[in-house]
Each structure stands twice: as structure tokens, then as C-alpha cells.
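User: I'm putting together a teaching handout on how multi-component assemblies are represented. Below are the sequence lines for each component of a complex, exactly as they appear in our records. Could you produce the 3D structure of the whole assembly as C-alpha cells, so the students can see both representations side by side? Please keep the chain order the same as the input.
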Amino acid sequence: MSRVERLPNGLVLALEERDYPGVAFQLLVPAGAVNEPEGLLGASTLIEGWLWKGAGELDARGLAQALDSLGVRRQSGAGLEYTLFAAAFLPEVLEEVFRLYALLLLNPRLPEEGFEAVRSVALQALLSQEDQPARKLFSELRKRVFLSPHGRDPLGEEESLKRATPEAVREDYRRRYTPKGAILAVAGGISWERLLGAVEPLLAWEGEEAFYPTPLLSEPHSFTLKRPTAQVQIGLAYSDVGPEDPRFYAARLALEVLSGGMSSRLFTEVREKRGLVYAVSAFPAGVKGQGLLMAYGGTTKERARETLRVMLAEMERLAEGVTEEELSRAKVGLKTALVMADESIRSRAGSMARDLYMLGRIRPLSEIEGAIEATDLRAVNAFLRAHPYRNPWVGLLGEVDDVS
Amino acid sequence: MSRVERLPNGLVLALEERDYPGVAFQLLVPAGAVNEPEGLLGASTLIEGWLWKGAGELDARGLAQALDSLGVRRQSGAGLEYTLFAAAFLPEVLEEVFRLYALLLLNPRLPEEGFEAVRSVALQALLSQEDQPARKLFSELRKRVFLSPHGRDPLGEEESLKRATPEAVREDYRRRYTPKGAILAVAGGISWERLLGAVEPLLAWEGEEAFYPTPLLSEPHSFTLKRPTAQVQIGLAYSDVGPEDPRFYAARLALEVLSGGMSSRLFTEVREKRGLVYAVSAFPAGVKGQGLLMAYGGTTKERARETLRVMLAEMERLAEGVTEEELSRAKVGLKTALVMADESIRSRAGSMARDLYMLGRIRPLSEIEGAIEATDLRAVNAFLRAHPYRNPWVGLLGEVDDVS
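Assistant: Of course. Below is the structure of the complete assembly, with chains in the same order as your input.
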């Protein structure tokens, strides 16, 4: 079981104790592309890169060396809805790790002379997306799906990145790096008391309540990006229910029937029977307050039309319902995946943080298992009838003159 | 501790018992690109895809449904040196899982009518590589580095895939899907006795000793692939020592200094100080009997020359040795990574199988930790002096007229 408390400064702290020789955390800071100022798109990415240029008594090299000396395996990056700092390490260094992360978050130097390298890395990341056709397509698809800032790409935009000044980014850091809306989820072999002591330096963190816009969808439509790629990339988006909806598990099980294993409908119809693609899949891609299901396929120019047709048909066919056998396979598949993911403290810290962000609470494994078990064929098929997967946003990228 | 036995038919079976509610295995079948017949490149990929088209009493759909009903999370694919079948599931279905995998391996239907879809998927995979510049570059780099078949791409070649006949692929399956050279590594909450009972159906598997060619390197040289990509991709390859070499841990620690964390030399010099790239890394890329170190960077056309220069300089500078501080950080980093990876039974089954393939035995965690600890500064720097990272194979992909 996990314990959750909101600390006096607003930071939400959660721990799941595990008898295991390691500790993992995920820290979500409420600074993402969705709440960037208009005109400063990509600021979250710039801030995250800039933070590592030194904090408190440590310069960039000192900070990196200090964490590497403690054996902290870490990742961080700005995303659509928040900036994520993830770390895993051995329990004996817990206090020193949080002292350093508190320095990073509360007392970064944000030095003038490091800014150009940060900007340059951000521009490189944006440029590298141009060589990744599937990623490029889904970035554009999200832009089309949302009227609200939820369609933004966390990498930012070239013009905006080029125009950003150190002053504006510093100011944005001060506003959006706030504990009110931040979440720290920890899993591993330490006690609640020890954790509370270790995060003490984070209590000095102060700030306003985080701001989040309301998601707003556009009218579904189609678009094409003409590119001289070898394959044609196909992306679909459908409005869906999110984890806060009582029908969530019905939707999740239907997705498993659609794309959960080698016997799933998309894999069978698109790849196994027809050999249309190497990769095809459907996956949840929603934001807080707005569920979204997306589907992907990549194929030749000649087979793009047929691939699109089969994908659309399989999505639509869900409204006719799934079979008892399909549902039973979907339940076994989801439950096994749950058990396997739960094995890892890093993955557990991740799902704890995600639950706290999306739902404001952590679902115990037993609750999820119970809810999957309790969702019967009637419930799934009633949901699918009432919520048909029709009328999607459709995006194509490639040499696509002949598809429409 | 793990237990290893060679079964009467030649299959090497290993188990590491864990008190954990799940089981994972990796099965290595000695059919990879390296031992494909000359005019049948890509055959390993075709076989692996074709196997799933039905086995014993089950057709393709029946086979996929049977495994999905048991909740088996699985992956499989043909690689350079072997074909890998990986699976994770709950212990209660152990016997049935191995019964199904034995069907797949020993009694596949390899039906004529499924062959064209398999070929088509393989061609799609090859085509999709054309849209992935970094992958394309490293595929070409390996082709250049090896004179032996170790330079082949497991995806095969277009002409060869198009010409392959069902008969030739069936014949190749019979020859190369052999237990003599196959490895089955299992980790999880089951006993040795139970495992032995469960794998019984695999005992009927028979075949000749697997064939592996000896790796042979070319003379280091440079090449460019001109492509209209947004970024220029840079790939380097250096001959290195493998895990069978007594100097392996010295080399591994040097690699950690070079590219192990945010304070590593490549990250600091190429990305943090100069902002030349978004991603830069060095990684082991050897085969059995031939160690290899590769390095990657992606940057703009304008900064490609400088990026290449800095990468080469950092590699060469290793010969001057690393510092006591760098080594100590590298040791902590490697040891923490070991503990974290050991947490997962899937990752443990993977390293067991890899050890058995590369070394013929499984290194206990304590042995690796001990060897890392025992490798002192003298040993690392003596290795680096005697084995300088100079004179690499250099590959560039992009609009690279101005680099040389």
C-alpha cells in the first residue's frame, strides 16, 4: 500500500515501501508545453536543460559529477503536461540525492553563459524530428486534434526557441516551477519517516498554484504531409474516455482486443493476414480531462489506401461488440502485464506519479485487477455501442498523392 | 545462484529461482544472419515470421489465441547471431507455455499460403529502415567493419527476400533450427524439477551442431551516404575487447567514463559545453569473439565537421588515461545499474542467456561486482595505453559534401 500526503508547501508526496535494495522516484513539476506562455513555446525544454548548468555551490560539471558519484541513474525532460525528473539509486544515498535535487529545483544558477548551448541542443532535438517521419506525423496530428494548447509539441517551435531570451526563460522558470501542482512519487526500501526527513530541503520550495488550460478538441478532419519518404505513415486519432471515467476499464479492455497481442484484431487483420505493414498498433494518447485513442501504421505508397481502409474498418467494427473469448484473453493479458510492470520499482514510481496527476490518488494493484475482473461483456459492448470509434482525425505522411 | 545443464539433445537449460510471482524466459535459437546461406539473406527473419503461421493442431489464429489466453507477454525476432524468443507469464501456465513453444519450434506448419504475407512484412521492415537515418547508417557501418558475415543486416536484402522460395526457407529452417547451440534461460518463481518437467516436449528436438563463422574485420576506412536528411548522422566503430578477455572490465569502465552519465566525457564535451548535438553516445556493439565499440552523434550539416572532430578527439584522449575520480564514479554507476537491472526477471533472463551465448557460463552478480571493484586505476590506464581508441571506421549520412 502506498501513503500519500500533501506537504505544507503544496507538494504531493507519495511512498510505496518495498523490500528491495533500491529506491526510485518520479518528480512531476507542473511546467509543460500546455502552460507555456504564447510566444515562448519550448520554454519548458529550455528550462530543464538550463537547470543542469549549475545550482547552489555547484557548477554544471560539479552537479553532474555529484549525482554520478552517488550512482544516481536519472532521466529528465519536459513533456506536454509536466516536466519529469526520474531517478533510481541505492537507499544509503537518499538524503544526499534529495539535497541535490532541491538545489537543482530551488537554487539553479541559470547562468547567462550556458544559455546558448541549451538553445542549440533544443534546436538540434527539433531538427532531428524532421528525420523521424512517424514522430513528425503524430506531432502534427496532435496539433490538428486540439484547439487548446494540448496540441503543442514539447520540443517547442523553431522561431520561438530562437527568439527566447535568458530573462524571459528565467522569469518563466520562477512562475511555473511551483510545488503547488508538483508530485513526488517514491518506491523502494525506505520508510515514510526517513523519506520525510530526506525531502526536507524541498519544503523551502514555494510558488503559486499551477495553471492548466482545459482541453478542447477540433472537428475531426484529414490532412496529408507530402514528404519524399520511403514509407507512407498513417495516423488516426479518436476521442475516448480517460481514467476518470467509470467506463474507462471497458474502453481499456476494448483497446486490448483491438491491439493487445498477436491475436488482437489490428495485428491479425493488417499484418498477419494481409502483410500490409511491419508495425501496426493502437494506443492511449490522452491528456488530463480528455481521453484519446491513436492508431499507427506504416506501409508502402501502393498499399497505403488498403491499409488505411482496413484500419478504419477494424476501428468501426468495434461498435458491433467483442466476443466473450476476446474479452477473456484481454483480461488475462492486462492482468499479466500489470503483475510484470509492478515488479519494477521504477515502473511503479511512474504509475504512482501518473495516477496522482490524472486522478489525484493512487490506484492499488488490487483495485485495478478487481475493476478489470468486474467489467463484463455486457459492459464492454454497451460502451462500444454508445461510443463507436468512428469519424477520426486522419493524418498521412509520405508520397501520398494517390490516397484520399 | 543459477543452475545450468546441457540436456541430452544439446539444448542448454538454465534457471535462476526467484521468489517472485512471475516467470520469464529467453530462448536463443542458433539461426541468425551470420549463418544464413549466401543467396538466402533474411531467411532467419522469414522463418521466424512463418513459424507463427501455425504449428501442430493450431493454425496462426489458434496459436496466437492460445498464447494470449495464457497471458503470455512475448517478443521474438531474428538477430545477427541468433533468433530470440522471449516470454513472461504467471507460473501456473508454465507447462502449457512450453508445450506451445515446443509445437512452434518442432512442428511448425510453414504453410505455403502464409508465405507471401511473411515476405511482405519482411520487405516492409526493410523499407521502413530507409526512413530511419541513424539505423541505416549503423547498418552500413557494420557492413563496412566486417569482412565476415557479421556485417549482415538481420533484416536481409531486398533481392534475396524477393527471390526466396518456400522450399528453400523450409530447408533452411530444418538445418538451422537445432538444439545444439540453443540456449533456454529462465528466471522466476519455479523450481528446477518443475522446469525440467515443463520443458520435456523440447527434448524431442533434434539437429546438427550449429555453425558459426569466425569474425573478421576489414581495414578501418571512412565512407559517406549522401541523403537529403535534416541532420547529419555520424557513426564511429573501434575494435575492442569482448567479455571473454581478461581486460574486459577495464574496457567497460573506460566506456563508462566516456559515455556513462551526465558527467561522462562525450556528454560533457559534445553536448553540454558546445551544444553540438541532442544525442551523443558510445556503446558496446561486438559479436561473439570480436569486441567492438561504436559511437553515435547527430547534428546539423554546418556543425558536422566540428562534432566529428570532438568525438574523435575524446576517443583518442582515452589513451592518456582516466582519473581516480572518474574511475570511482564509473564504478558506482556500473554497480548501481547492475542492481537495478537485476530487479527485473525479464532483464535477468536476458543477461543469463547472453552470458551463456558469449561465455558459455553465467556470471553471478557478485562476480561482476567483485571484478568491477578489483579493477584499479593502474589496470584501466594500462589497458588504455596498450589499446588506444584510434583509427576508427567512420561513417557519415546526410548532406555531407563539406565534411571529409
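A couple of points students might notice: The first helix of chain B runs from residue 43 to 51. Chain B has a mean pLDDT of 96.
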